[in-house]
Amino acid sequence: MGFTLADLTRTERRLVDTVLGGRQLDLTGAAERTIRGSVIRALLLDGFPWPGGGVPDPRGIRLRGALIDGGLDLSDVETSLPLHLLDCRTGETVRLTGSRLSTVDLSGLAGTNVVAYEAKVERSVMLARVRLDSDSPEGTVNFGGAAIGSVLDLSGAHLTNTHPDGPAFHGNNLTTGAGLFLSDGFRAEGGGPRGTIRLSGAVLGSQLNLTAAWLVNPAGPALVADYLRTGSNLMLNRGFHAEGHHDTGTLRFVGARIGGRLVCDGGHAFTAEPGQLVLNASEVSVAGDLLLPLSFTPGLIRLDGLTYHGLPRKASLDEWLELLALRTTHYTSQPYFQLAAAHRAAGHERDVRRIHLARERDLLRRGKLGLRGRLWHRLTGLTVGYGYRPAMALLWWLGVLVMSVLLVAGIAGPAGLVVRTGASGTCALVDQIGLALDSAAPLVKTDALQRCRLDTGVPGGQFVVAATWVLQALAWAFVTLFVAGFTGLVRKPA
């Protein structure tokens, strides 16, 4: 729509004068605060009839406390003038779809929704402290596919969407040169089954900050950020709160790449159903430290494929082993190997063995093992600690030796079943013990067999002989398991 100066109201003429002079028009508390959105659009476009042939100041439109009538549609507008509309109100959608703008500052805006799908903003976009309440499938704030040269700031914003499939913030495939701030009292409600906050495929030049944010979605995930990329930290800390209801997780970061730290210290996440997934960090890569205390969520977590730098912080090793064994959705070995690698790099070899033992126990409890595999796993666990405690086999072998001595010297000897070889009479106690050791100590032989033998010609003699064969087989088995477990442990890769 084309305008002449005669078409403008007195308040709108004041706005024209302030744009020419590089000043701000503050209408807070004024009797007449109305500015038509179509006038603002005209001011941003070339061809507006500026008084006296003047040109707008490079500071652009600077307006505070206005009531924007008829909505603000800047779709496909291309301008180098910054746009600052602070603490304004509007009853209709603010549209920036497909626009090419310099700077956008809508801080303090009260209205319905802001749709900036595939917009390109050279510098920053400020939506701090906005109060937006919509019933729109487009989203309360929509920057899907947008490209922002610097920061996108929604700190302290309150976003609500009552549409059954409308997000509070839609940022799928968003690109920013700096960070995205959904922090410091930011609140978002609604969203439906596809999520309240949607950031799948977003690429952020710096951090994603949700410190002290409050996300609620009774019908789906609170945050979906699959394949998110950040140049710095992901902050879910210091009062962060998320409630959701979805089997894929209240918070979902599948395949995300975090360029700094993942910080969950002081944050909390919940799900409506106790058996549902809360944090889905499958295949997530964290370039920095991982700060994930057990207090972050009482629910289930998925960590298969998660990698991080250094030892995980804000949780002890015992707490991490409890989390992996009892708070993950299913057994997978990778989280244990990642934790073990971190402790091995820190020189904690004893802890590495503890982690692998816990992994093997979890495999036995929840892994997909057949009957044979389960029996073999139980056997190796009892005898050599799954190869991580080969000395256990030596203890079993010592037990076999004791049983052999008790059988030969404690039962067969007093019963007269141990006799001299080639002579009459029974053997001395020391010879009886030597005969027992010969039966249960592979590769270690005394000369007791030359002097004594078990009498198989009397009742019970054959039973004792058969029992010594069984003990000898067990002794060989335990010694073999010790050797196999010991050499297997030495050969485990670092």
UniProtKB/TrEMBL annotation:
Which protein are we looking at? Oxidoreductase
Q: List the keywords (alphabetical).
A: Membrane, Transmembrane, Transmembrane helix
User: Origin organism of this chain?
Assistant: Amycolatopsis rhizosphaerae
> Which residue spans traverse the membrane?
394-412, 469-490
Q: Which domain of life is it from?
A: Bacteria
Q: What is the lineage of its organism?
A: Bacteria, Bacillati, Actinomycetota, Actinomycetes, Pseudonocardiales
